From TrEMBL:
Residues 50-289 form the Beta-lactamase-related domain. PANTHER family: BETA-LACTAMASE-RELATED DOMAIN-CONTAINING PROTEIN, D-ALANYL-D-ALANINE-CARBOXYPEPTIDASE/ENDOPEPTIDASE AMPH. The chain crosses the membrane at residues 14-34. The lineage of its organism: Bacteria, Pseudomonadati, Bacteroidota, Flavobacteriia, Flavobacteriales. InterPro entries: AmpC-like (IPR050491), Beta-lactam-related (IPR001466), Beta-lactam/transpept-like (IPR012338). Keywords: Membrane, Transmembrane, Transmembrane helix. This is Beta-lactamase.
Amino acid sequence: MENTKPKTSKKKQIFRIILFASTFISLWFVPWILVKAWILPLPNTVQEQVDQTLGYGFDGVIVYVDEAGKPPAIYTAGYHDSAKLIPAKPNALFKIASISKLYVAVAITRLANENRISLDKPLTDYFPELSDRVENAGKITLRMMVQHRSGIPNFTDNPEYWKNQPNTDVDVLKYALDLPANFEPNKDYGYSNTNYLLLSRIIEKVTGGSRQDYFKKEILIPLGLNNTYGSINEVNIEDVMSGYYVGIDKDFKNEDYGMMLATAEDVGKFVRALNDGSLLNEQEMEIYTSLYEFNHGGLAAGYQCLAEYHKDIDAVIVQFMNTTDFEGYQWNLLEITHSRVVKILRKGK
């Protein structure tokens, strides 16, 4: 009996040491900057929150707020161009990346309502040449593509896409061809930029013009959106907010990925119209509601953004932040700071 107690005590001591060490190690890897962003006292105003956001490593921030019954407001902090020390501009153009998927989904909805396309026809009806190059192309419908249920590989997940940046004069679709499907059509969900690349080309094939031309006719002009563009080739580059990537000494605003640009105000007006039914008629709204979402984010090198309508406070919030890392921290900070803006607005109700 006398020899048993010391052994038990020693085991407990070793266990405690291991537990302490593992706890210490786990704390070492806690993303404290995210914890700080969550637990800091909530500011009283949106501008204070926007100013606070700069402390998390962002070069520039733009936040557009449209609360029903109040004039829209735009808040800024930091720099439009940090190298030239140009302050952030409320009307700056910004690469909105995947927020453009909302515009594509609207266009597809309108074409479907006009019976110019069928949501339930396969991809091969529009591009028969892809039958042997996209697995299951004969079974993948446009509806599945809009909803990211096609199983088509995401071209931006292909390492070759990133090795060959900026992919000038290259059809980026090649990075998704001749690859196995991620899953059987309509059997799972898998976010894929390839879906919307192909949908954009279907819009162009059916309308006989560019995607942007169709957007102008059906979305931008009717809504009075005069500061939304199809690529940087259509704008004065000095109007574009600079974009930065953590750890890389480069301004990404000159990189042409063929993505849309817009002011926060234009994106906000679009999201408001999409959500309040003034963009789509009743039949179109029924189709759209069955197809896609009403809010969206966007992420590209140097640019991340979030555009959301919050029904409970009848408010649209668009947030632009011109610093990214692709490790997830900057994106998480975008979501956290966006949610804090929403809380501030709720408190004011």
